[in-house]
Amino acid sequence: MPRGDKSSYTDKQKRQAQHIEQSEKKEGRSKEDAERIAWATVNKQDGGGNKSGSGRKPDSDKTHTRH
Q1: Segment Disordered: which positions (predicted)?
Q2: With contact defined as beta carbons under 8 Å apart, do 60 and 52 qualify?
Q3: How high is the mean pLDDT in each 10-residue block of the chain (67 residues)?
Q4: Full-prediction pTM beyond 0.90?
């Protein structure tokens, strides 16, 4: 998949990115910055354009050691 290709994202993810982008533009960000922030946010929330449903790993998968 070429860099910047959004075809693997779900319709819901695309709508979320569009909504975030519009909000960022209202805050005075440039179109490029707003788009970058929107997709970074969607990726952080859902793990990118992954349709398998894995998304983010729950905290219980992380290994924590306490001493």
Answers
A1: 1-67
A2: no
A3: 82 96 97 96 83 57 64
A4: no
